[in-house]
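Incident review: delayed structure delivery

Summary: a single-chain prediction request sat in the queue longer than the usual turnaround. Root cause was a stuck worker, restarted by the on-call engineer. No data loss occurred. The affected request and its eventual output are reproduced below so the record is complete for anyone auditing the incident later.

Affected input:
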Amino acid sequence: MRVGAELWPGNEALFFAAGQGWLAPADFRLVEMSSGFEAVRAFRNGTLDAASLSYDEVIRAMQDGSDPVILLALDQSHGAAAVLARPGVDTLPALRGKRVGLQVNSVSAYLMRRALESAAMRSDDIQIVNVAPELHQRSFERGEVDAVATYEPFRSQLLGYGAVELFSSTAIPGEIGDVLVVRRDYLEAHPGRAADIHRAWRRARSRATSPEAVARASTRLSLAPDLFARMLAGLTILDAPASAAAWQAQREQLLTAMTAIQGRLAVAGLISKQLPLEPLFDWPDGLAGRVWPD
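Output delivered after worker restart:
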């Protein structure tokens, strides 16, 4: 199973599980992606069998003709994604006419749109500059943009550089989070691997904030351990449901959130039509018994 995951604190439990040997190297290969946008493209093209994607990215993948199934809810952001500006640009209305760096068709674009809505602004009130997340700080330092819509670990790097936070995911609870999706055909052919990754996530989640896990993630991301720990404070790493009943409750929460997000994307003209989202949770026969054995 080729699993794509971008640089994001919420994905580190996957890499920790792989490092501990809980995802057998013969069966799993974690692929570090430069962004969620690239992960969506690789998933759509079949380069990846599974990917960690934000809610809006899953919807975009469906619009592109992919057939994803949600296996796990990984995390929810409550401050780890934010709109940051250079000093002197201290409010969202002050962004009018300014250059804002973000990656189009990504969670950053969704965050920026919600920020603008909160200030009764529109996308054409700002100049959008398409910038990959890993280049946000460079563009900021060079003066190529006046603000960015970004997320960890880039958010903390920019705050350290002196950026001012104008808006964050704390203002839109439940709207920015990540799930692990698997291609339906792969899931049907390899249900055992889906069960394995479910169990591995559960083990890794229980140790996500342990000194060993923090040290490994900090080294992998080239961050000081205390900085990585502060990043985790802006996230809720979710537990893998331990029963069918717990999954049903989580499923309903995800379905409600993603239905609302799809509606906003449609109203904004960012997707061509609204698709049924229930198939996202349609596991193949027998998988539930492998994940939660009697």
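Verification: Residues 137 and 154 are 7 Å apart (CA to CA).
Action items: add queue-age alerting; document worker restart procedure.
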